[in-house]
Each structure stands twice: as structure tokens, then as C-alpha cells.
Specification:
The protein is built from 26 helices and 26 strands. It has four domains: 146 residues, Rossmann fold (3-Layer(aba) Sandwich); 98 residues, PAS domain (Beta-Lactamase, 2-Layer Sandwich); 184 residues, Reverse transcriptase/Diguanylate cyclase domain (Alpha-Beta Plaits); 262 residues, EAL domain (TIM Barrel), CATH 3.20.20.450. The protein is an alpha/beta fold. The radius of gyration is 51 Å and the shape is rod-shaped. Bound molecules: ligand C2E and magnesium ion (2 copies). The site of one magnesium ion (MG) has 4 residues, from loops.
Length: 712
């Protein structure tokens, strides 16, 4: 079998048309014969123009083209085929004379692929055509594959660089992402000239590492405006020899999302300040630095005074707006310290945080001594003293500030913060609107306070509270007409804790509302019990904290307690203190009138220690005035006190108020008060505050029989 006629070549060759162009019919015939014998399909044309027509018609795989032809010569026909998109790559063999170098050159410049010398070697022509065909197919495959690669690479978001060991950029392919890296210009052909210095260094070190140990390397970098930079991720992998492939992907969106998450996790949404978590990290860094430099760090706890009241009375939206204003002011106060404390301070470094509610905390770094912190606390107080304006309201928000210094007051963040908090509580305790620097003796007292506050929260549930009752005697009849209910806390470990200790605490932490309600209900039920048991009408005086007027509807609570106990409202007397007048008097008067109308009687307790002004007494619908026991205490020896007592009694009678003197301990005091017309007395002389059972034993049982107390 003819080796050129195997099945494979037949199948392959059959698909390929070979176009033979020659004006010599004999030659065409011979070529056709030789090629058809090798399994090719052959079409022929007798001149250049016919060749163009046949080319369009048959799309030949190879063209054999004679040079000299009528109508259109071979060069011209070749040029025109090349000009066609389909003909651009078709192999064209120009048939020329072997010696005719001039023709060969012309053939190449007309776009011929190769030339076939005359006289034609008939035994080789089919091999020659097959070779050209194979080369053309390989070239075609390569082009297809390249086109695919190009399409792939063009669709890739990543930007590719081929970079040599010395940093020369050998190749660049832009990615499709929005903020792709720009193509290196002519004067930027190394990474040092193409990239900013810090980024170039990051790339170089990775490239060296990849070339040295062959393992891929990664890093992130950013370019562009520092305020709104583009973020990129760089991956460098080994390529050929001393080349590396750098794949750069833009990750700005991902970074921004990460930042948003970070913001949520580490920043307070209301004020935009760092939260507790971030603050602790920053404080820890500040402490480390101070330890290295031998400097001090101050932690400032800033707590707004009476903020709860703003929130309660004006609403949370209002409260939020106030907190934002305060946060801005505090931030300004602390930042403006840069020039004094840290000329090299990085502006983005955070120094103020909101720990929650109305609690802010600030870090001052690189201090020489405590005096440096004093200036800042003073500035904060001055700044906060300026009235806050919001929606037409204007008011002053003062603050209590506690300061603790590293390393003096604590060497770790927990101790430092705890002690700053302790100092802040001391500032509050000292009457608010003040600053306290931590001192060692504080912690015990404050810790104690904290413990008490916690204990008090559970005291109600654990049944540790009890009411004691102190008798009040009517001066004229010398009969017991009533009792004052006084709260007692039997602490499981500390024993009895006096109300002077825990009532202010309860007022501060808001527990006074449930506590006060408990006292009211308990006292009203006691009145009911005594009525039922002894058939006697005992007036019950109950102390009401001014705070209760704020955090609850006092009138509602009192009348409900009376109703639930089933007693006459006239059995109850409420003891108010003068601090009540620090609140909105018109509102207070309204509440008191409501109670008064229902039959409840009202007393002003501890009179003489507060405002002591007649004008307010006239405004309030009072029944009774209780002279503070400090005026009664040494009546006998202190002429001033005696005179004050006499004046108070006279004035009260003038206003048609009953007068009760408290703290009467001696007979002499009693006599003097009687001589001045005092209506009732209360004090150790008559009886100390005792339990309900004891009152029953000492007063009520005998009174019931001797009718020392009025019958119901
Ligand atoms: P207060 O209302 O002025 O009560 C009278 C205080 O004087 C009581 O102190 C009582 O034990 C004390 N006292 C009475 N007679 C004498 C005396 O002859 N000599 C001396 N040295 N003291 C006498 P206590 O029980 O320690 O209560 C202190 C304060 O705690 C009360 O003063 C009252 O303001 C407050 N308090 C007590 N219970 C309650 C309560 O249930 N609610 C409220 N909001 N405050 C209460
Ligand atoms: Mg009282
Ligand atoms: Mg009193």
C-alpha cells in the first residue's frame, strides 16, 4: 500500500482543500494528481482573480500560488487574501524559480508563508504541503489557546505582574476589578519606581523569600489617599528561574466591611467613641509604654451628675443628645492637651471612651506627675459647666471625676480602673461636681459601699428589713397618739445597719422606690392589725424620700397602700424633707394636694436643717412641722437652740401647723417645749424605736385597758 494513502491521512486530508493557482493547465493537472494521490482535495484556478473567487468559495487550508499570471499576479492575489480576516493566517506557498531571489523576497513581503521552488519535485510536494498544513494547524491551536487564555486573564479580577529577582517588572496584565493597579509607565519598570517606598519594601522582601525557599508569600498593602485608601492583597508565587508571579487582588470592599464590623464591636454607636473593650486594649498599650519610658498614665473616670434625672424627666432621645454633646466636649478637652503633654501625639490615637450610660473614661499619657492631670480635669469641669442647649431647653450637666495614676495607684488596668472608679464615687459622695484623686484609704470605704449596695438589692427578698416604731406623745393628754415607722436593716454579717447609712445609698442607686413602697405597705398593714387587735386608732408616720417623688407616682402608691390595707387615710402621716423643694414645686404641690384631699396628713421632717424658709412652708399643704432634734438636743444649755425652738413653735402655730419636737431625751427638754406650747413630742425620753411586738407590750396593751390611747 502506498504509505501516503493510509486511512488516517485520507480522513484528515479529505477535509482540507488545497487550492492550486497557476495559469499553466499542465502544471495544475500534475499538482492535482500528486496531491490527490496523497489524499487531499484539490481545487484550482487559472489566474489571480479566479484564485480570489475560489478562496472565498472553498476556504482552502493551503494555497499554492504561481507568481506570473494574467489579470492578477500571484503577489497581488496573495496580498488581497491576507487582507481578508479569514485569509490572514492561511498558509500560502508561492511557486517561484529557485534562483529568483528577487521573487522570493517579493513573495514574503506580499505575505507568503513559504515558497516552493520550480522545477517542482513531484515526489516531495505532498510532504511539503502536509508539513505546511501541520505547522498551520499547530499555529492555529496555539492561537485558539492563547485567545482562551487572554479571555480568561481578561476576565480575572486580579492584576498580574511577572517580576524578576532584582525587582524589574517583566510583564503586566491589568485585572478587571474597579480599582485595579495602573500599568507601570516607561519610567516605572522596577517595583521601587512603580510603588511607594513602604509598599515596594513589602513586595521586595516577599519576592526574595519566594526565590529563596520557593514557597508562596502573602501580604496586604494599601494605595491612594490615606483617608480613603484602596486595599490590596498580594500573593507572590514562584514562576520561572529567577522570576516570580505577583497576583494582586483589590480587597477594599472586604476591608471596609471588616472595618464596619470592627466599629460595631469596638465603638459605641451613640457617640462614636471607643467602647470598654477597645479602651482596655488601649490602656494596656499605654501602660506598657509608660513602663518602658518611666512615665505616668492617668485614668480619668467621668460620671455625669444626675443624668438619670435628665433621662427620666426629658426622655431618652433628649438624654442621648446630651450624651453626644458631652462626648464631643470631653473629646475636645482631652485632645487639646496634645501640645502640653505629647507634642508628637498621633492624632488618630484614641484617648476617650464611653463605658456605658453616663460614664466616660479618658487616658492621659506621658505624664510627669499628677499635676499634669489636674489641668485636664479642670478643663473638663469648666467645659461641662457651660449650659447644654437642646430643643430650646438649657441646663447644666455637672460631672464627678475620679483620677487614678499608673503606677502609683495600680499597676494593671483592672486595678487602675477600679481605683479611678472608687475616686469618682468619692467625688460623688463629696456632693458631686468635684474631682477626687485616688488615695489608698479610699478603697476600703468604697468597696464597702459597693458591697452594701449589692446587699441592699437582696435585702428585700431575703427578709432582712424590718420596721421599728417610735411613739409620739400628745403633750396635753400625755397619751400616745401615734408612732413613726423607722426602717431597720439586719445585715446577715454586719448586724444592724442604721438608715443614715443605707437610705442615702438606696436613694443614689434607685432602690429607694421599691424600698419606700415596702415601708408604706408594711406600716399601713400594721395600723390595720393594731386596730383589729386592740380596737385603737394609732396614727402612723412614714418617712418619704424626695427621690420617691421623682421615680414613682407617690400619690398613687400611697393611696393604693391605704386602700389595700383597708385603713382610714387619716391614720397616715407622710414625713417629707426640705430637699423636696429642689424639685419642681408646682408639681409637688399638685401631688401633695391630691394626698391631702384624700385625708392623708403631711409633715415637714427635720425642720430647721434645710431651706427653713417661711415662703415655701406657705406654699405646701402641710399639717405638721417636726423640729429637728439638733435644736432640741441641748436646749437646757444652749440659749440659741431654745430660742430657735420657741420661734419655730410660734411660727408654726401662726401657720396653723401642729408642732412635734423630736429627739427629746430629758425631762427638762420636755418641760421647756411644753412651756412653749409644743403639741407633741417624740424621743428616747418617751421611748426608743422598737419592734411592733414591743410597742404592743409597752404601750398598746396597757393603753387599751387604761384607755391611754384614743379608742377607735
Ligand atoms: P427621722 O425621720 O428624723 O427619724 C428620727 C430619727 O431620730 C430616728 O433615727 C430615731 O431613732 C432618732 N431619734 C428619735 N428620738 C431620739 C432621741 O431622743 N435621741 C436621739 N439621739 N435620736 C433619736 P433613725 O431610726 O436612725 O433614722 C434616721 C433617719 O433615717 C430618719 O430620720 C429618716 O430620715 C430616715 N429613715 C428611717 N426610716 C426611713 C424610711 O422608711 N424611709 C425613709 N425615706 N427614710 C427613713
Ligand atoms: Mg422622720
Ligand atoms: Mg426627723
Amino acid at each position: 500500500m502506498d504509505p501516503e494513502l493510509n486511512v488516517e491521512t485520507m480522513v484528515n486530508n479529505q477535509q482540507d482543500v488545497i487550492l492550486v493557482v497557476d495559469d499553466d493547465p499542465t502544471l495544475r493537472l500534475l499538482v492535482r494528481a500528486a496531491l490527490e494521490k496523497a489524499g487531499f482535495r484539490v481545487e484550482d484556478a487559472e489566474d489571480g482573480e479566479a484564485a480570489l473567487r475560489m478562496f472565498i468559495k472553498h476556504q482552502p487550508a493551503v494555497i499554492l500560488m504561481d507568481v506570473d499570471m494574467p489579470k492578477l499576479n500571484g503577489y497581488e492575489a496573495c496580498k488581497r487574501i491576507r487582507a481578508d480576516a479569514v485569509g490572514a493566517h492561511v498558509p500560502i506557498l508561492m511557486v517561484t524559480g529557485l534562483e529568483d531571489i528577487e521573487s522570493v523576497n517579493r513573495a514574503y513581503s506580499a505575505g507568503a508563508t513559504d515558497f516552493l521552488p520550480k522545477p517542482i519535485n513531484w515526489s516531495l510536494i505532498s510532504h511539503r504541503v502536509r508539513y505546511v498544513l501541520r505547522a498551520s494547524r499547530t499555529y492555529q491551536d496555539l492561537r485558539t489557546s492563547e485567545a482562551k487564555n487572554d479571555a480568561l486573564l481578561n476576565a480575572m479580577p486580579d492584576t498580574l505582574f511577572v517580576i524578576r529577582r532584582d525587582g524589574t517588572i517583566m510583564n503586566f496584565l491589568a485585572g478587571s476589578e474597579a480599582a485595579t493597579m495602573p500599568e507601570p509607565r516607561g519610567d516605572q519598570l522596577t517595583i521601587d519606581t512603580y510603588l511607594p517606598k513602604d509598599v515596594a519594601e513589602c513586595w521586595s522582601s516577599r519576592i526574595r523569600a519566594v526565590i529563596n525557599d520557593g514557597r508562596p508569600q502573602q501580604c496586604e498593602f494599601q494605595l491612594g489617599d490615606a483617608d480613603a485608601p484602596y486595599h490590596y492583597e498580594l500573593q507572590i508565587v514562584p514562576y520561572l528561574n529567577d522570576l516570580t508571579l505577583a497576583i494582586v487582588r483589590e480587597i477594599t470592599d472586604r476591608k471596609r466591611a471588616e472595618e464596619a464590623v470592627h466599629k460595631l464591636a469596638y465603638f459605641d454607636t451613640l457617640t462614636g467613641l471607643p467602647n470598654r473593650q477597645l479602651f482596655q486594649q488601649q490602656l494596656s498599650t499605654a501602660i506598657k509604654r509608660a513602663a518602658e519610658n518611666g512615665t505616668k498614665v492617668a485614668a480619668l473616670y467621668v460620671d455625669l451628675d444626675n443624668f438619670k434625672r435628665i433621662n427620666d424627666t426629658l426622655g431618652h432621645n433628649f438624654g442621648d443628645a446630651v450624651l453626644q454633646t458631652i462626648a464631643e466636649r470631653l473629646d475636645r478637652c482631652i485632645r487639646s492637651d496634645d501640645s502640653v503633654l505629647r507634642p508628637d501625639a498621633d492624632n488618630t490615637e484614641l484617648r476617650l471612651a464611653r463605658l456605658g450610660g453616663d460614664e466616660f473614661v479618658a487616658i492621659l499619657q506621658d505624664l510627669e506627675d499628677a499635676d499634669d492631670a489636674v489641668a485636664v480635669t479642670e478643663r473638663i469641669r469648666t467645659e461641662l459647666r457651660r449650659p447644654v442647649e437642646h430643643l430650646g431647653h438649657e441646663f447644666v450637666v455637672t460631672s464627678s471625676i475620679g483620677v487614678a495614676l499608673y503606677p502609683d495607684d495600680g499597676e494593671d488596668i483592672d486595678t487602675l480602673l477600679k481605683n479611678a472608679d472608687v475616686a469618682m464615687y468619692q467625688a460623688k459622695y463629696a456632693g458631686r461636681n468635684s474631682v477626687r484623686f485616688y488615695s489608698g484609704t479610699m478603697s476600703l470605704r468604697s468597696l464597702e459601699r459597693l458591697e452594701l449596695e449589692n446587699g441592699l438589692r437582696y435585702a428585700l427578698q431575703r427578709d432582712e428589713l424590718e420596721l421599728h416604731y417610735q411613739p409620739q406623745i400628745d403633750m396635753a393628754s400625755e397619751k400616745m397618739v401615734g408612732v413613726e415607722a423607722l426602717l431597720r436593716w439586719k445585715h446577715p454579717e454586719r448586724g444592724n445597719i442604721p438608715p443614715s447609712t443605707f437610705i442615702p445609698l438606696a436613694e443614689e442607686c434607685g432602690l429607694i422606690t421599691p424600698l419606700g413602697e415596702w415601708v408604706l405597705r408594711r406600716a399601713c398593714r400594721q395600723v390595720r392589725k393594731w386596730q383589729e387587735k386592740f380596737g385603737l386608732k394609732i396614727d402612723m408616720a412614714v418617712n418619704i424620700s424626695s427621690q420617691q417623688f421623682f421615680h414613682s407616682d407617690v400619690a398613687e402608691v400611697v393611696l393604693q397602700a391605704i386602700f389595700d390595707a383597708g385603713i382610714a387615710p387619716t391614720s397616715l402621716q407622710l414625713e417629707l424633707t426640705e430637699t423636696i423643694l429642689m424639685h419642681d414645686v408646682a408639681e409637688i404641690v399638685q401631688t401633695l394636694n391630691k394626698l391631702k384631699k384624700a385625708g392623708v396628713s403631711l409633715a415637714m421632717d427635720d425642720f430647721g436643717t434645710g431651706y427653713s424658709s417661711l415662703s415655701y412652708l406657705q406654699q405646701l399643704p402641710l399639717d405638721t412641722l417636726k423640729i429637728d432634734r439638733s435644736f432640741v438636743a441641748d436646749l437646757e444649755n444652749n440659749k440659741g437652740n431654745a430660742a430657735i425652738c420657741a420661734a419655730i413653735i410660734a411660727m408654726a402655730h401662726n401657720l396653723e401647723l401642729d408642732v412635734v419636737a423630736e429627739g427629746v431625751e430629758t425631762q427638762a427638754q420636755l418641760e421647756y417645749l411644753r412651756s412653749q406650747g409644743c403639741d407633741k413630742i417624740q424621743g428616747f425620753l418617751i421611748g426608743k424605736p422598737v419592734t411592733a411586738t414591743e410597742i404592743e407590750k409597752t404601750f398598746l396593751q396597757t393603753a387599751a385597758t387604761e384607755s391611754k390611747v384614743d379608742s377607735v
